[in-house]
Write a structure and sequence with these properties.
The radius of gyration is 16 Å and the shape is globular. The protein has a three-stranded parallel beta sheet, sandwiched between helices. The protein is an alpha/beta fold. Helix 3 links the parallel strand 2 and strand 3.
Length: 91
Amino acid sequence: MSEKKISTINEMKNMISIIVPCYNAEKYIKDIVSDVLKQTYTDWELILVSNGKKQEKQLAIANSVSVSDERIKVYHTDLGGGIKCKKHWHQ
């Protein structure tokens, strides 16, 4: 019985959401996206949340990398801080 359960779980494919709050992250966004794209699991969405005011450069980089793959989405919020951002997106 446990063998059947394991095979059923292995056959299931669920989309996962990778949510990355970004603040002063312009140096890292391209590496983050590159690492996610290298994964063998393909049923995912990457949500980059440009977080805070005066993040124009970061937002421009995030928008430019999102063009390469429709699974990459970019949002901007002035909420600031990872916890505030997390609470906002989970409501």
